[in-house]
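Progress note, sequence design subtask.
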């Protein structure tokens, strides 16, 4: 058993604090280097990485294109392991230094859009797709979109961090966040027992939730997490996740800004020709 931690009166930043992503975290904001962002020929410039939050937006873009909307975009890889998110250009688009970030160049002036939920709503409203214009279905879509935004930090920054990335395995935080992850999966499983999608028709709510909880249900999140959390028992989430995983837009969207793993990779996306045949 490790010695109990006694918090000091004033916290100070201990840079070598361990953990896989320790070098990326700091208690201050702002740019650390001058670095302009590239721009392509399309009206939308996406700066991202194929993490769960990044995949939400690339899935929406590919679904919009599949539905016939003029949503052509350039997707530029932001390597968070190299600190690209702290470049001055990226910080100018997202002062929070988190992916994804979007520049909408379709209007008279460039418009920055940051935070994945904000980007989903912005694009859905712009194209009138995957978000009902009014009524109960619109409210329900926002219910589940906000559920995801509030819940996923407990899955990723909580369970995922302590189970997969922390420098040592500690029983208390793993148990605490495993319990919450399973509770959240049960929330979804009960809802999807009576609903094909999260909020009526397929929507941005599904696109937001899928990369976090659909991937977990399919055991594509953290090594050994599927077995540890017994995700096979959430049969309704698995049915929904399999259904989404088969969609061409989801298949393509999961590849965008990906440069690791044994599945399809499209580090940068500038046209449909960038995807493997």
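Output:
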């Amino acid at each position: 058993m490790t010695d109990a931690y006694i918090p000091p009166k004033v916290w100070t930043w201990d840079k070598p604090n361990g953990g896989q992503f320790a070098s990326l975290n700091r208690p201050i904001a702002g740019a650390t280097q001058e670095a302009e962002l590239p721009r392509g020929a399309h009206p939308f410039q996406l700066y991202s990485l194929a993490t769960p939050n990044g995949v939400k937006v690339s899935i929406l873009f590919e679904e919009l294109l599949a539905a016939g909307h003029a949503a052509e975009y350039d997707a530029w890889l932001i390597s968070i392991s190299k600190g690209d998110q702290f470049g001055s250009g990226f910080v100018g688009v997202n002062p929070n230094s988190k992916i994804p970030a979007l520049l909408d160049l379709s209007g008279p002036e460039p418009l920055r859009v940051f935070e994945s939920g904000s980007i989903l709503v912005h694009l859905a409203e712009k194209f009138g797709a995957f978000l009902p214009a009014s009524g109960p279905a619109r409210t329900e879509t926002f219910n589940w979109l906000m559920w995801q935004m509030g819940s996923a930090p407990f899955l990723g920054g909580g369970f995922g961090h302590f189970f997969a990335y922390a420098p040592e395995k500690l029983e208390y935080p793993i148990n605490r966040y495993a319990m919450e992850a399973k509770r959240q999966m049960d929330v979804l499983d009960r809802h999807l027992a009576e609903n094909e999608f999260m909020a009526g028709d397929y929507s941005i709510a599904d696109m937001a939730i899928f990369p976090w909880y659909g991937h977990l249900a399919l055991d594509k999140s953290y090594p050994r997490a599927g077995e540890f959390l017994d995700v096979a028992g959430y049969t309704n989430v698995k049915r929904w996740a399999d259904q989404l995983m088969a969609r061409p837009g989801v298949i393509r969207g999961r590849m965008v800004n990906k440069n690791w793993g044994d599945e399809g990779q499209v580090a940068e996306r500038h046209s449909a020709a960038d995807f493997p045949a």
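DSSP finds nine helices and four strands in the chain. Work on this subtask will continue into the next period as scheduled.
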